[in-house]
Amino acid sequence: MSDTVEAAAEALRRGELVILPTETVYGLAADAADPDAIARIYEAKGRPRFNPLIAHVADKAAAARLAVFDERAMRMADAFWPGPLTLVLPARRGGVCDLVRAGLDTVAVRVPAHPMAQGLLAVFGGAVAAPSANRSGRPSPTTYEDAVAETGFAAGAALDGGPCLVGVESTVVSLIPGQPARLLRPGGATREAIEAIIGKLETSGDDARRSPGRLALHYAPDAPVRLNAENVAPEEVHLAFGPGAHVSERVLNLSPSGDLREAAANLFAYLRAADRLKPSAIAVAPIPTYGLGEAINDRLARAAGFIG
Questions:
Q1: Domain ranges in the chain?
Q2: CATH class for the region spanning 5-210
Q3: 282: three-class secondary structure by DSSP
Q4: pTM of this prediction exceeds 0.85
Q5: What is the pLDDT of residues 190-208, one digit of tens each?
Q6: CA geometry: angle at 166 spanning 132 and 142, to 5°?
Q7: Whole-angstrom distance, CA of residue 116 vs CA of residue 293
């Protein structure tokens, strides 16, 4: 049985960790101003300390106390918050602890849309760092059960918000004054929607280190992941996409109708389900690269170890 929002807020104030539902994935949350609590996140996840965390806040006003917003950032916040978009902005002094920023001069911040996350942030009254509630490198949890199985041992409280509706992490965009807008990580807000607000996004370069979720092998199940699979061996599990696939114990269809939103919502849960069958490999059907397909293909490529 999950805890109440009030109990979770008290756990945060004591420096404990909390399993938190968001619209993207479940997070392992801690007070973003408490370095000891943030260190517990790294310890629980086995996460490299050079990888920054995202500060989750209740609204744009709270975000502006942590980061410096220019006109582009204001337009992005107005268009996408609350929602699956993270902005990397110049950090204000005293906003979050150094461990959250991984020692950088920028801070990654977003306003989650999930009502339970909103409720906790309102009751707690501060920012929380909340990376995905999986052990580092493994698929992110999109259900309460998977989150508790991954890092529940380290949590002082856990909130059950049901299945995550988006199912992939937030899009991360860098907006540093004097620099072009850069896409650091594709995610739940599509490139097309973002470019409609602020124009063309540049590709990330050395500034990719400012974003979470950039490890070469990330979101990975235990079984190898084989991409763009046209044929499937008997000992493999098939992650299909679109009509025509006969679903069985060893064939899981991310979206029988070919809906990228449905595929994104199912992605991590299906990777976990496939992995539980102990296959020789997980063979993934080709996924379109437009819209949310960009984020899906990014996660699959990292799960396969193909992005450095």
A1: 5-210, 225-303
A2: alpha beta
A3: strand
A4: yes
A5: 999 999 999 999 987 666 6
A6: 40
A7: 27
